[in-house]
Amino acid sequence: MLPGVRVLDLKKNVDDRGSFAELMRSDWKELLGDDTIIQANLSQSYPGMIRGWHRHARGQVDYFIVLNGSLKICAYDDRQDSKTKGQLDEVVAAGERLQVVRIPGFYWHGTKALGNELALTVYCVNRLYDTKNPDEERRTWNDPTIIDPKTGKSYDWNRPPHK
After folding, report:
1. Residues 6+ apart with CB under 8 A from 135
2. Taking the complete model, does pTM exceed 0.90, yes or no?
């Protein structure tokens, strides 16, 4: 995985009433490091919806937790001075297996809702969103300069993640 990209399985406690899971704790240093969660957001994506590519230049880190449906979460490193330049990570997260996926904001990243269900995602960030001066740079979802190292071609959001 790209440095800083982390996945943490969450414990779902099930009993006769339903279930309970801790989604984020400040003492999860193996996930958070020195980050502090400042804001939590809820995102719904219709099946097949692609939200990408974007990055955060001022230090925002995203923590994705898929509650319903499935989401392909991708990160791409195109930093000129990086040892992992050209590397691309794909993580498939789903409501059936609760996980937190950490993506450092300096990577270009995005998501695609997989399957036939609405993808319901909570994502936490370590910086408040500033509507007047957003920490966000964008590329089109099909930007031909983002190369899939597996194929040597432009990244294809519609290629199954297992191929």
Report:
1. 56, 57, 58, 59, 60, 105, 127, 129
2. yes
